[in-house]
Every structure is written in C-alpha cells, then in structure tokens.
Design a protein that fits this description.
This protein is of the alpha/beta class. The protein has 17 helices and twelve strands. The chain has two domains: 186 residues, Rossmann fold (3-Layer(aba) Sandwich), CATH 3.40.50.10860; 158 residues, NAD(P)-binding Rossmann-like Domain (Rossmann fold), CATH 3.40.50. Helix 2 runs parallel beside helix 5, helix 12 runs parallel beside helix 13 and helix 16 crosses helix 17. It binds glutamic acid.
Amino acid sequence: MQEIISQFIEKVKCRNAGENEFLQAVTEVAESILPYIHEVPQYKNARILERIVEPERVIIFRVPWLNDKGEVEVNRGFRVQMNSSIGPYKGGLRFHPSVNLSVLKFLAFEQVFKNSLTGLPMGGGKGGSDFDPKGKSDNEVMKFCQSFMTELYRHVGADIDIPAGDIGVGKREIGYLFGQYKRIRGEFSGVLTGKGYEWGGSLIRPEATGYGLVYFVEEILKLTGDSLVGKKIAISGSGNVAQFAVEKCIEKGAVVVTMSDSEGFIHDADGIDEHKLAYIKHLKDTERGRIKEYAKKYNCDFYPGERPWKIKCDIALPNATQNELNGDDAMQLVKNGCICVAEGANMPCTPEAVSVFHKAKIFYAPGKAANAGGVAVSGLEMSQNSQRYAWTREEVDNKLRGIMRDIHKICLKHGKEKDGYVNYEKGANIGGFVKIADSMLAQGVV
Ligand code: GLU
C-alpha cells in the first residue's frame, strides 16, 4: 500500500511542483483514502481521487486599485473552483500577503471534504489575494474590494459559486464586495455569505466557527464521560474563530489562558473572562490593534514572536493559520498532559505534529471536521436567502449543534480503530470523500 501511496503522491508532485501546502494537504488525505479506495473497485476504476486533486477551474486575475495617495497599486486575485459534484462552489476569500496558488489550492481542497461533512449541498472552492488589509484605511480596503469584485463577479453567483470570509476578510470586506456585485449585476442575491444581518446575513454566522469548534470538542470529551468544566485551554489566534471559541469556552466553564497574533502570544494565568474578551474584540475588530496591548492592560505575560504551545494545558485549539504547530510543539503539549487538540484554523498542525498526537493516542480533530461550523452556517445562510426568510438565533444555533454532532458521528463511523482509538483524521477524510465520490460516479466522467 505504501508503494501505491508514494506513486500517487509522486504524480501529484510532478504536476504541481513547488506547491508545498497543496501537496501537504493532498498527501494527508491520500494516506487515509487510498487504502480505503483499494477496497472499492468502482472508485478506483473511475479514478475518483485523481480527479478530485485536479481543480475544476482556476481563475487568476489582476486587481489594480488607487491608494489614498492616489498611487496605483497592483495585487493578484484568485478563485479556485475545486469541486462542484454536490453543490455550487463554496468557500472563503483570504486577503493576506502569504496568499498564492498553492495556499488557495490547499484551502479549496480541504473545503471540498469539509463542506461534504456538513451534510449540506455545497461544493468546494477558495479564493483571495495577496492584498494585505493590515495598515490600510477603510477607503483603501473598499477600493481594493471593488476592484477585486469587478473581475470576480463574472465567475460567481448564488447558484454558481458563493464566496465568504477567511483570514483578512470579515464583515467590512464582505460588505464592500457585496455592494459592488449588486451594482454590477443589478441584483440582490445570496452571492456571498457572512453578510450583515440587516442585509441578508444569518444570525450566529460570526460565532459559528468558534462555537462549532467547541461543540465538537464537547462531543469528543463525552466519549470518556468528560466535559469542558474546569479545563485549561490554550488558544492561538485572536480573530473571528479564536474570539468566539473563547466566548463558548467561558460559557462552558473552561479557563482560556492564551491568545495570539502574528507578533506573539499573551498568557493570562487567571483566565480570559467575558470582560477581557470584550476588550479583545474591540481591540481587534474596531481599533485593529495588537494583542500585546492586552498584556499591558491586564498586567500579564507577552511572549513576542512565540506561539502558545509551551503553556501547560488540557486542550489546545490552534485557531491562527496553517502550519503553526510543529512536531516539537506537539511533543511539548503531550508532555504537559494535553488530552485533546482540535483545529479551528485550516491545517494548523504539521504532519509531524499529527503523527505525535496519533502515537500518543490523544484526541486530534482535524480542521475539516472541527472547524466546519463556519461554512455550515454559511450553508444555512444560503438556505435562508433562498427562502427570503431569517431564522432565530436559537434555530440556527440548534442546527449548528446538530451538524457538529453529526460530523462527529461520521468521524466515529469511519475512524474508529480496532483498539478503540478514534482516528478523526481518517474518519473525516473517508467520511467527506464517500459523498463526493458517489456523486461523481453518478454524474459520469465530467
Ligand atoms: N473560511 C471558512 C472556512 O475555512 C468559511 C467558508 C465559508 O463560510 O464559505 O471554512
């Protein structure tokens, strides 16, 4: 089997040379899917996996815009339309200087499996730009978004491809993108999710990824009759996912002791309470400031340039970005008695880290399962837009809870090993794959 896996990876490497993040994501999936496919000749013969790793379409475009000094700036825009076998392309837009084709292909690839796991009819896609919103004025962000949508509009639509937010794209950016789409097309439609509630957004969408992550962790802990009460939690990130993960952890009686941004992390041994969290939300979303300000205000430790994984915790929630937790970090976490790592970000743990968790047999929940709550509520936003209706907070929250519970069940079904250990990575990969593969089979060679 190892031989078959290596041959497959080699072929993908040849066609996608240098796309390291994409190759990492494909390798991780291929390792769990290929042994499974081996047992199902119709998947093998229809070359489903070979087709899944090839995007249906990639669009790359120029994004010129004028900055506040009246100078011309040029960025690159992308949309990777990865797979539409179970629904229109769906996935966020990332605006960050690190964005390139490899990063977006990895994210689009992960999205295909994640969206399938939600049980909702959404294909997978991802897009974005190397534009850096940090330090830009509102006016500059608006100019950029308008230029970006002036090209993207011809490739998206409420039944074609529905982008949303990701790193660097929040309610502000979605607003500017939506306004420009509406103006060009002359239609008010559900072309984007993560919209403001007043103009077609869903309640609970801002909270969904963070809340969903914590609901998923609760399901994991339930397996051993455990709960979040009194658990010490290390969190990285301080954006949308991290903020609402902290909020839900506090509500569940856990103690969150760290948060971070690109400049370092804060360690608050007393725990971040709801007042401190309100300060962080204001600091990050309104002032667009740095997390080190928190350490000054609350007189706690700030570790410049570091990540929080050396802090002793029961549960670690990496919520910042890809490859932010490596093999050494993983060993440190295990040594410190961490029992569960669940990914709020996409692919934050390196393959070395994941293998440390598996060897130590601690719970490890990959992003495509654990952070699927965000896109799940995006799917619910689409349903509400189609009905021209809006559900209550309770309705959306209950549906989100149910979806996270179902994803957990799928992981158990496909990931439980002979000794009882649940390999969530395998469970999520196979569980996500089956629906896509069956749909592709049904739709012929397209
Ligand atoms: N960017 C989020 C993700 O990684 C959400 C995507 C969406 O809502 O379409 O799943």
